[in-house]
Write a structure and sequence with these properties.
Blueprint lengths: L8 E12 L3 E2 L5 E2 L7 E4 L1 H16 L15 H9 L2 H4 L3 H15 L1 H6 E3 L8 E3 L2 E3 L2 E6 L3 E7 L5 H6 L6 E19 L1 H7 L3 H13 L11 E12 L8 H5 L2 E5 L13 E5 L7 E5 L2
Antiparallel strand pairs: 1-10, 1-11, 2-3, 4-8, 5-6, 7-10, 8-10, 9-10, 11-14, 12-13
């Protein structure tokens, strides 16, 4: 594994959805998340992190240094207990075990050294503040969630079949967004990376994940989702040289053509990036 990253990064991620539900709200019947005041759609940071985790899990297939801590059906305290059973942890003095277990968890689990984790829920492995933090994604324009009735030509039980006199239909509901372009901001801290061991290899894998995370996550419910732009700002120092909001303001997303017609494709938008030299920050377009 390469050395930990030595530069601060900020990034803008643009992704879209067509005829799908990018991030349903379980408290609202799985409707697409929405800002009730503005009408803009929302996608949580947890949703994006989940897709990154899933991609890394597929690519690395549980490799020793790229395992995933927060994964489906995992029992987290069991994984923390395993850390305390390692020889390099067991042999430590009582007061040093928590830190040794924390270091082991950072080394073994990609998502712990990337996003951080609370690991004090059982045998204490401390808390980790990850170097990568991601905001909620917000749609560029207002969204109009659509509700659809769907029919399955089968039932689950004999009782349902008898009740329908053999008609055997199951009705359901499905929510979609016709089209929406979402914008997400992210921050990567070099000082925090030095605390978790987040390396240049880890960073390259993270960029790869953001570009490809939707390619192995397709489903009928999510429609068509794709990463459209990933703009990375690389500072020439660990602490950074320019405030993040100044950099984010350099990325403009505007409607192309008649803004009165609802957007239905990425080509309905124009993305511009102010490439004027910043001197201490490099701009790189990953997609």
């Amino acid at each position: 594994m390469t050395t930990t990253i030595q530069n601060r990064y900020d990034f803008v991620l643009l992704f879209d959805v067509k005829d799908g539900n990018p991030n349903g709200d379980p408290d609202a019947g799985n409707m697409p998340r929405i800002d009730p005041e503005s009408g803009n759609g929302l996608v949580t940071d947890v949703c994006i992190k989940r897709k990154v985790r899933n991609y890394v899990q597929l690519v690395k297939n549980g490799h020793a240094d790229f395992d995933i801590f927060i994964k489906e059906k995992a029992i987290l305290n069991n994984l923390i207990d395993q850390a305390h059973e390692q020889e390099e942890v067991k042999n430590k003095e009582k007061g040093e075990k928590t830190e040794a277990a924390r270091q082991y968890m950072c080394k073994r689990f990609y998502d712990v050294r990337t996003f951080g984790a609370v690991m004090s829920t059982g045998k204490n492995a401390g808390q980790v503040r990850g170097p990568i933090q991601i905001t909620f994604s917000r749609s560029v324009d207002q969204i109009v969630p659509l509700e659809h009735s769907i029919t399955r030509m089968a039932v689950t039980t004999e009782a349902e079949a008898e009740k329908q006199s053999g008609d055997n239909r199951t009705m359901g509901r499905k929510f979609t967004v016709p089209y929406a372009l979402y914008r997400c901001h992210g921050f990567i801290s070099a000082p925090l990376a030095s605390q978790t061991g987040f390396s240049e290899d880890d960073l390259n894998l993270f960029w790869e994940s953001l570009v490809n995370m939707f390619e192995h996550d397709h489903s009928a419910a999510r429609g068509q989702m794709a990463t459209r732009k990933l703009i990375v700002f690389k500072h020439n120092s660990p602490m950074g040289n320019v405030p993040a909001h100044v950099l984010f303001d350099r990325v403009k997303v505007m409607r192309a053509g008649d803004a009165g017609i609802p957007a239905r494709d990425f080509s309905d938008y124009i993305v511009t990036i102010d490439q004027d030299p910043i001197g201490t920050v490099d701009i790189e377009l990953k997609v």
